[in-house]
Amino acid sequence: MCKGLSSLPSSCLEKAKEMRVKLSHLADAHHKHKVHDGKVFQDMETLLSTKSGLQVFRGFLRSEFSEENLEFWLACEEYRVSPSKTKASSIYGQFINPDAPQEVNLDAETRESLLAVMDSLCADTFDKAQQRIYSLMAKDSFPRFLRSAHCMEAIKSF
């Protein structure tokens, strides 16, 4: 016979309640973030793969004074497709150099490793740095974006 929920330890019941609340929030977020073409602002990859998503996210980052992260990520994408010494120098000068006008937040190790390979460039030269910035946006900026007026307005306009 089933003893019911009362036979479970209270810690299990609390965990179950927490999971139910989290799942409820995820379901609500999923429904709130649908756009006209069936896509959802549910992950960075989807957001960055659409022109409209990119535009809205850029506007949000601009409002938070962190647009340089997206600009760096986009410059790295362009570099990967068409690598050149000129583009690499431009990316380094614009985003990596400690005095760069749009300096991105990279750890010293990543910054130093980039400086070390600037003489022997290849298509994946900026991959590690780009991934760090992508992770930063995905963990920090993107969740705030989903809760922002920018996102809500974009969803309403679609």
From TrEMBL:
Pfam families with a match to the protein in the record: RGS (PF00615)
InterPro entries in the cross-refs: RGS (IPR016137), RGS_sf (IPR036305), RGS_subdomain_2 (IPR044926)
Domain annotation RGS: ranges: 43-148
PANTHER family, sorted: REGULATOR OF G PROTEIN SIGNALING, REGULATOR OF G-PROTEIN SIGNALING 5-LIKE
Name this protein carries in UniProt: Regulator of G-protein signaling 5-like
Organism in which the protein naturally occurs: Sparus aurata
